[in-house]
Design a protein that fits this description.
The protein is of the alpha+beta class and about 160 residues long. The chain has two domains: about 45 residues, no CATH class; about 110 residues, OmpA-like domain (60s Ribosomal Protein L30, Chain: A), CATH 3.30.1330. It has five helices and four strands, in the order αααβαβαββ.
């Protein structure tokens, strides 16, 4: 059979069968399903890493200051720790070291160490409440071993695993 005969037969079939063209095109429901299936992938922005300016660098340090003999966080400290936690959540390869200090007139080394531990645990609890896993936080209560000001503080240091 020649190609002109085949073309003539197909024209005849299309003229005789009004549903012929409909069979060639996919039904509208299949087209819509494809569109819907592609939309979630386009909206999956949470899987994207944060912009470079929001990434936390190894060695970044946040100092949380405390009043003498106090173990409660201040409002400013809470805001700073919350921001750190938000930035750190997406970076699973980073950890936090909490280095806690306590100084004060009349504090024995033992009492200073207990206060510094309490401060470190307060900071740790706040970070956990804001989405940081406990396995990513190391705590060290150093008591009255501070070498720089402020003497009553917790240093939150970012380190790589």
């Amino acid at each position: 059979m020649s190609s002109s005969a085949t073309a003539a037969e197909s024209q005849t079939e299309s003229a005789l069968d009004p549903d012929w063209e409909k069979a060639a095109a996919p039904p509208p429901s299949q087209t819509e399903e494809k569109t819907v299936a592609l939309q979630p992938a386009a909206r999956n922005e949470e899987a994207m890493p944060p912009p470079a300016e929001e990434l936390i660098a190894t060695g970044e340090l946040v100092q949380v200051a405390f009043e003498a003999s106090e173990t409660d966080l201040t409002g400013g400290s809470r805001a700073e720790l919350k921001e750190l936690a938000e930035r750190l959540r997406s970076q699973e390869n980073m950890r936090l070291q909490l280095l806690a200090y306590a100084e004060g007139a009349g504090l024995s080394p033992s009492k200073a160490r207990r206060i510094s531990l309490s401060r470190a645990l307060t900071v740790r609890s706040y970070l956990i409440e804001n989405g940081i896993k406990t396995s990513r936080i190391d705590v060290r209560a150093l008591g009255n071993k501070a070498t720089s000001s402020p003497l009553d503080r917790v240093d939150v240091k970012v380190v790589q695993r």
